[in-house]
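User: My instructor asked us to take a sequence, write out its structure as tokens, and then describe one feature of it. I'm not sure where to start. Here is the sequence I was given:
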Amino acid sequence: MTDSVIGIFHDSWVGIRELPTSFRNPLGLWMKAVWYKANPRSSAYMKALFAERYPGATFLDVGTGAISAATIAGTSKVVLLYPDSIGLGYFAIERVIARQASRAEVEVLNGRRRQFAFDRTSRWALRFRRFLEWSMVIECFAGVVLLLATLFLLLFDFVRGKT
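Assistant: Let's start with the prediction itself. The structure tokens for your sequence are:
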């Protein structure tokens, strides 16, 4: 039954890997930081991982072509192959799969070798995690807290005469 399984891979990090790290391009630095934190796997790695889990199944790289409705129509299982842990850059593909593969079972296999069902609960959890990854809210909050703690400790040392 592996002939009715399709693995869909998309590398949304292609242009970001080559971005120069310069303070003249803050958006480029931001994207490079997101890429570094995501630590995405290569197409060859994901293809080998997919072949290990589903021998003989079809591997489809959407970077080389679009997803056709005819390809998805006869499948019993669609496996989304995230090169990173949460599938940054996969939102548009997930919408297409939700529309075209309504009868197929949809799963996710990520670059960390984790596999899970792609249901409503996991979709919302992934959206939330993707927001946290892209916005770096936690990192920004931690930076502000550390800055305030440093100022407080510096002032405290100054008052005690230790500076």
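For the description part of your assignment, you could build on this observation: The mean pLDDT is 89. Try explaining in your own words what that tells you about the chain.
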